[in-house]
Amino acid sequence: MRLLHRAPGSTSVFTLEEMEALLLLALSILTGAGCQDWGVTLPAGPLAGWSGSCVTIPCSYTYPEGQLVRAVTWSRDKERIVRLTATAGQGYDRAKRAQFLGDLQHNCTLRLSPLALGDGGAYSFEFQTQSQSWKSPRAVCLTVSEHPCRVQHSMSRTAGVLSGSTDCSISERCASSGLYWYDKAGTQISQETGKSKSRLSMRIIWQHRGAVLECRVRGYRNRCLPKGSQPPATGRPHPLKVLVDTDGPGPIREGDSFTLRCVGDSGSLDQVYFWIHNYEDLPGSSSLQIEGAALSHGGNYTCMKWVSDIGRAYLAISPTTYVAILAPPVVHVVATPGPHRSTGEPLSLTCRLDTSAYGGLGFSWYKDGERLGWAQAELAFPGVQVADGGEYQCEVHNTLGKSTSLPLTITVVYGSDWYQLSPGPMAGFGAGVLLLFFLSNLGVYCLARRIRQRKELGGSLQGGSREDPSAPQRDSLYEEIPCAGEIPCPSDDDGDYYNSPKDYCN
Fold first, then answer.
1. What is the topology classification, in CATH, of domain 331-421?
2. Where are the bilayer-spanning segments (predicted)?
3. Distance CA 347, CA 416 (A)
4. Which of 7, 43, 363, 402 has most Cβ atoms within 10 angstroms of its Cβ?
């Protein structure tokens, strides 16, 4: 049975059991503990509270006269959370939210502020004297629920543009007169608002980069704090900034890995991070790791953090940080005035890059795959010679790496004829000239031999005196005699033809 109704987390009104425990504590102090036996008095019924609020567990303990208390201990589900000794003071206060309000005599009251959802459980008390230890025969149960006035968030975004909005909202069970947004100076920001929801456009949020905005429940009062006091300074998060961690010194190159960190933590347990890359939303926590960076990973990065609290919430927005990703430069060789020159004319070869983002560059030159002893961006020939022809490449390098150009072929001119100055084409040209010379001489030889044969045949027929009338006559004296060995040549002895495979016109 409760004496008065109270909202969970309130400390202004006690239950009947708590008042009985306090009265028992006062009676034991007034009458002395001489007639008291071993015992621990805790509230009879379970306790309830809201997260972010506070709760006090009244407690008293008694022991025979003449005993001296050396240590007291509070435990939750058999795990020690507070211990007070005569020599070392209070310990086990890991979260700094459990406060022992008692002493080493008869008061063992415990206060939890602010409550967290994980604080629920069975609480028991134990004390030790110089002769023995005594533990409460039962535990008091505590239930922690979500506070209806905790400010939650929701975000509605359209990728690629600064559109959408961020909403802060509370449960309809929270007694309030609405939610409102405020800038870092405490000035109210114009927005769409209602009793349980308030909307702030993304464009307004983007204008407050580097600041912390607050969404506050109007009419809410934290009953765990003295009337008129302000929330602790640690509740408002610090301004954010983005730090870029790289694997090594210097700029970030393609293929490198880097990490973005959103710095400015307030230590709150209820916080959510957001990342925006070139107006695109990215998932992430307080850090964002990029493996194998590409050019698309460069650009502007902004992080936001939402810190939820009871009666208020905060949205911290970092300034925009630009991340540059350097790609290997494209290198090419430029010939001035051009790659085709006459012997003796000047020629300049220049190694050019498609970007000016690199510094501290060194240069190397290659001709037909062989490195030249020249380390400048320009390779100049006052008068180009035949031996200077070939394929040229340039290479640029610094501490970040190197890039090599495609080959450029240089040719020279002799009079009106162009010759490419490389061994392969020159050898082919010479072989062609020799073959043409051989074929032309072979044709002249065959033509002369054919004319001689016809003359000899005509002279033999004109003599007539030695011709055998009975010999068969040919159809034509001028039939074509090919020079491919198909028709045998005449004999030198008697003018007759013979089929000998050894004597042909060719």
1. Immunoglobulin-like (2.60.40)
2. 426-448
3. 19
4. 43
Beta partners for residue 437, in sequence order:
none
State which H helix or E strand residue 424 sits in: helix 423-463
Residue 94 CB neighbour total at 10 angstroms:
9
Paired tokens of 380: 């100049």
Q: How far apart are CA 147 and CA 226, in angstroms?
A: 19
Model confidence pLDDT, tens digit, residues 352-377: 987 776 777 899 999 999 999 898 99
152-223+236-326, CATH topology level: Immunoglobulin-like (2.60.40)
Q: What angle do CA 63, 65, 70 make, to 5 degrees?
A: 60
Architecture of domain 16-145: Sandwich (2.60)
Residue ranges covered by each domain of the chain:
16-145, 152-223+236-326, 331-421, 434-459+476-506
HSE of 142, CA atoms in CB hemisphere, 13 A: 28
C-alpha closest to that of 333 among 370, 372, 379: 379
Q: What is the pLDDT of residue 97?
A: 83
d(CA 48, CA 30): 31
Q: Where are the alpha helices (DSSP H) in 134-284?
A: 202-207
Q: Which residues of 475-492 are buried (b: 16+ CB within 10 A; e: fewer)?
A: eeeeeebebeeeeebbee
pTM: 0.56
Half-sphere exposure for 192 (CA within 13 Å, toward CB): 10
Which distant-in-sequence residues (6+ apart) come within 8 Å of 73 by Cβ?
80, 82, 83, 84, 125, 126, 127, 128
> How far from the centroid of its chain's Cα atoms is residue 277's Cα?
10
- Residue closest to 49 by CA, chosen among 108, 123, 106, 126: 123
